[in-house]
Amino acid sequence: MSKFSVRILEPSVQSTWDNFIDQADGGTIFHKYAWLKAAEKQSNTKCFPLVCEKDGEGIVSVFPVFLKNKGFLRVLLSPPNGCAIPEMGPVFGLNTNKQNKIESDQYNALLGYKTYIKQTFNPHFEYYLTNLYDVRPYTWLGYSTKPLYTYKLNLLEDTDKIYTSFDPSIRNRIKKTEKRGNISIRKGKPEQLDVLLSSVQNRYSVKGREFKVGDMYLKNLYQSFNNRSMSLNSLYFGTSAVSHYITLRDKDHVRFWLGGVKDTKVPDGINEYIHWHNIQDAKKQGCQYYERIGANTKSLCENKSKYGLSPHVLFKIQYASFLGKVFFSFFNLLRKNKGL
User: Fold this and answer.
1) pLDDT in tens, 144-201
2) Are residues 8 and 145 part of one domain?
3) Is 302 contained in some domain?
4) Partners of 290 in the beta sheet?
């Protein structure tokens, strides 16, 4: 039987990590080494880039985990909180197309991670968001699993067919915006990152929520990924920029990641116009999917589903020790009693 071993990747060979992410189907921009380091600073955690090697094959999986100490509790996260990262978890690059070997290798790799994590970090609580479609190995290893969803639009369809899949109300708003004229979408300027962040923070504040993404985190990411995988865009009415947003190019699809908060004085239809522009642009780039992150809140889904998007599944993976279960049960009860 092949031996699987887990270790922490040395910072001096971070290119090995990024090359693996680029080649593996489940690797995302959020897994890239520069993003992990930016998230580490933003979340005040310690990132450990774990790799799993199989005898005779080298690295077959990588798994970025973030250690957070909360008092006497040790929490292991992937992704860390407050970083606007919708998915992370382990990534696999298995050298086989045989289902029995895929299942065996994934199980043994995840078993290797679990053993290493227990021996090295001994966390009281583990929380992962993964794009792995088959999470049975996690359930076999004693983790709890829960499906979460995001929205994606298949761009391989004909452009006219994509447009007609929109709800009539969306198409009407796009047409009205186009008829107004004097509208354009241009590449954003670095100084507009502050405007974008402020607009999102204000939107959250109105809803009584806090948006924890910091300006240095955003600027570090922009510096690392601008002109490669991250695009800052601004929508102009004449000479005035009225909305700013960021899209992420990730292999075969484009994600609408952050922003898109319009000036209250601007007529409705701007966001619809932005998404239609992005969809056409992503299609021209040869991408397969356009993603609107998040499909778990009913009120938000009622609007997003009008764009012909389809739900795609992610999974929340959790594991808690006895002490972790006691603490989080008490914490949730306290929140409930205080109406939080």
Assistant:
1) 999 999 999 999 999 999 999 999 999 999 999 999 888 999 999 899 999 999 999 9
2) yes
3) no
4) 153, 254
Are residue 145 and residue 211 in the same domain, yes or no?
no
| pTM for this model (two decimals) | 0.93
User: Rounded CA gap, 213 and 197, in Å?
Assistant: 8
Structure tokens at 300: 């938000």
**What are 340's two structure tokens?**
């939080």
Task: Verify that 13 and 143 share a domain, yes or no.
Answer: yes
Range of the domain at 130: 4-149+314-338
**Listed residue (90, 82, 84, 81) closest to 143, CA to CA:** 90
Per-residue model confidence as pLDDT tens digits over 228-262? 799 999 999 888 888 999 999 999 999 999 999 87
DSSP 247: E
Q: Is the pLDDT of residue 1 over 60?
A: no
199 within a domain of the structure (yes/no): yes
In a domain, 201, yes or no: yes
Report yes or no on 308 lying in a domain: no
Do 30 and 139 sit in the same domain of this protein? yes
Amino acid at 289: Y
Beta bridge partners of 149: 313
CA 238/CA 229 separation, integer angstroms: 28
Q: Which residues of 156-193 are buried (b: 16+ CB within 10 A; e: fewer)?
A: eeeeeebbebbeeebbebbeebeeeeebebeebeeeeb
Domain boundary among 270, 287, 304: 287
Is there a single domain that holds both residue 99 and residue 220?
no
Cα(173)–Cα(163) distance, integer angstroms = 13
Which tokens sit at 114?
């679990």
Pairing status of strand 240-250 against strand 253-259: antiparallel
The continuous run of DSSP H or E covering 136 comes out as helix 136-140
In a shared domain, residues 208 and 324: no
